[in-house]
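ok, trying the design again with the full structure, not the truncated one.
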C-alpha cells in the first residue's frame, strides 16, 4: 500500500464517522488552542518586560567596583598583581588599581576597559543668573560613544576644560532669586556655552570654593538612566579637582578607582566575563544579568502555561484512545476481511495509526486557528486597556500583549499529531494482531 493510498483510505474511514471524529477532535482543538494562547501570552509578557527595560544600559557593559572580603583574611592578588588591598582586621578591600585595568583588558572577550571616577567636591554650575547642583564623572576615554552613548547635540569628544552633559541637565537649572508668582525661566542653552563651575569643599575653617571655567561641547541623547543627569569630563580634569578637594595627590595603588566599565565584544560573553571578574575579588554587575533573570522567569512561565494546555491535550488523548478502541470493536470483522485478502499486520497498524494521527492533525489545525484568533482578540482588548493606563500614568504601552511566533503553531500542530499517534498506538497494535479467522467470526 502506497503512502497516498494510505492517506486516502484514512480520510475515507474518518469520513464514515463524522460525528464521532468531530466530537473527539473538539477535545484536541481545545487543548491545542490553550497551548497556543497561553504560550503566546507568556511570550508577549516577556517581550513587554524587555521593552520596559529601555534605558537599563548597554548589554555589553559590565560595571566593576572595588570588592570587599569579610573576616581576617589576606586578599589574593589576581594574575598580573592587580587588586591590591591589605590583609587582617575585620575585612579587606580589593582595590581597582592600574594593574587591575591591565588584568581586565587581558580577559578573553573584553573589548575595552574604561576607568571612571566621580568628583569628591560639591559642584555648582552657573549660567547667567541660573544655577544647579551637579554630579560629575571623570571618564578615561576621549569619546563617550565607546560607552554606547549618542549625541543629541554637539559632540561626545572630551578635551581638557570641556564637558558633555546629560539630556536632563539643562532642565535642572533654576533661578535662586526667583520671586513668588514669577514664571520660571526656560532651561538655558548649554551647547557651546562657557559656564562657571564652582567646586565646594568643607574644612575645619569652613567652606572653601574654587571657580573654574568650563565649556559644554555636547548633550547626550535621552537614555532614561544615569547619563541623563550626569556631567562627563576628562579623567585628568576630575583627578585635578579631587586632588584639590582632598589636599594631596591621588595614588591609584592606594586609593584605587571608584568604578570601571568593562565592555565585552558581545552580550553573549558578558555573563562569563562577569563571573571571572567576581572570582578575582571585585564586585561586578551587568545589565545582561537582569535581562537573563527576566528571560529565565518568563521561560519558566511559558513552560507552566504550556503545561496547563498540555493537560487539556492529555484529556483529548484519552478521548482519541477511546474512539479508536470503539472503532476497532465495531470493525473487527472488517479487519479480519482485510487480512483475509492479503493485508499484513503492518498495513492494518498503519491504517489505524493513520486514523488516530488524522484526528490529532485535524484537531491541531482547528486548535491553531482558534488559538491564534483568540490571541488576536485578547491582544486588541489588552492593548485598549494598556492604552488607557498609559494615558493615566504617562508610561508607554507595550507594542503587543500576546505574541505568537512562527514556531509556536508549527510546534502545536506537530505535538497534537504526535498525541494522536500515541493515543491510537495501543488500539492499533491490538487491531494489527487480531487473528483473521477469529475476527471474521466476531459478532
Amino acid at each position: 500500500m502506497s503512502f497516498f493510498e494510505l492517506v486516502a483510505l484514512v480520510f475515507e474511514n474518518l469520513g464514515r464517522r463524522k460525528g464521532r471524529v468531530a466530537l473527539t477532535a473538539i477535545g484536541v482543538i481545545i487543548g491545542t488552542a490553550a497551548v497556543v494562547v497561553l504560550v503566546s501570552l507568556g511570550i508577549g509578557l516577556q517581550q513587554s518586560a524587555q521593552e520596559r527595560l529601555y534605558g537599563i544600559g548597554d548589554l555589553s557593559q559590565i560595571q566593576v567596583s572595588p570588592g570587599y572580603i569579610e573576616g581576617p583574611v589576606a586578599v589574593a592578588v589576581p594574575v598580573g598583581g592587580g587588586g591590591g588591598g591589605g590583609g587582617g582586621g575585620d575585612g579587606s578591600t580589593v582595590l581597582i588599581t592600574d594593574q587591575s585595568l591591565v588584568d581586565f583588558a587581558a580577559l578573553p572577550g573584553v573589548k575595552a576597559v574604561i576607568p571612571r571616577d566621580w568628583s569628591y567636591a560639591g559642584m555648582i554650575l552657573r549660567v547667567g543668573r541660573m544655577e544647579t547642583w551637579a554630579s560629575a564623572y571623570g571618564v578615561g576615554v576621549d569619546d563617550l560613544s565607546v560607552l554606547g552613548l549618542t549625541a543629541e547635540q554637539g559632540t561626545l569628544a572630551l578635551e581638557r576644560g570641556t564637558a558633555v552633559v546629560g539630556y536632563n541637565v539643562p532642565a535642572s537649572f533654576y533661578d535662586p532669586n526667583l520671586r513668588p508668582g514669577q514664571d520660571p525661566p526656560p532651561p538655558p542653552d548649554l551647547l557651546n556655552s562657557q559656564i562657571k563651575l564652582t567646586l565646594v569643599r568643607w574644612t575645619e575653617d569652613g567652606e572653601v570654593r574654587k571657580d573654574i571655567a568650563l565649556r559644554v561641547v555636547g548633550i547626550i541623547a535621552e537614555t532614561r538612566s544615569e547619563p541623563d543627569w550626569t556631567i562627563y569630563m576628562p579623567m585628568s580634569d576630575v583627578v585635578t579637582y579631587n586632588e584639590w578637594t582632598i589636599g594631596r595627590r591621588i595614588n591609584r595603588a592606594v586609593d584605587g578607582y571608584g568604578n570601571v566599565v568593562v565592555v565585552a565584544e558581545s552580550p553573549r560573553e558578558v555573563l562569563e566575563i562577569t563571573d571571572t571578574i567576581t572570582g578575582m575579588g571585585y564586585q561586578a554587575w551587568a545589565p545582561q544579568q537582569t535581562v537573563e533573570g527576566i528571560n529565565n522567569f518568563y521561560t519558566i512561565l511559558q513552560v507552566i502555561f504550556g503545561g496547563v494546555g498540555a493537560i487539556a491535550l492529555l484529556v483529548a488523548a484519552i478521548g482519541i484512545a477511546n474512539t479508536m478502541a470503539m472503532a476497532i470493536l465495531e470493525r473487527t470483522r472488517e479487519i479480519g476481511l482485510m487480512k483475509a485478502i492479503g493485508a499484513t499486520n503492518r498495513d492494518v497498524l498503519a491504517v489505524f495509526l493513520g486514523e488516530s494521527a488524522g484526528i490529532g492533525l485535524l484537531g491541531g489545525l482547528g486548535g491553531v486557528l482558534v488559538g491564534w484568533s483568540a490571541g488576536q482578540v485578547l491582544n486588541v482588548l489588552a492593548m485598549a486597556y494598556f492604552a488607557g493606563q498609559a494615558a493615566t500614568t504617562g508610561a508607554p504601552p507595550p507594542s503587543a500583549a500576546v505574541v505568537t511566533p512562527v514556531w509556536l503553531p508549527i510546534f502545536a500542530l506537530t505535538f497534537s499529531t504526535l498525541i494522536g499517534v500515541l493515543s491510537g498506538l495501543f488500539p492499533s497494535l491490538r487491531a494489527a494482531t487480531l487473528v483473521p479467522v477469529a475476527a471474521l467470526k466476531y459478532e
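Keeping the full-length input from now on. Residues 153 and 219 are 5 Å apart (CA to CA).
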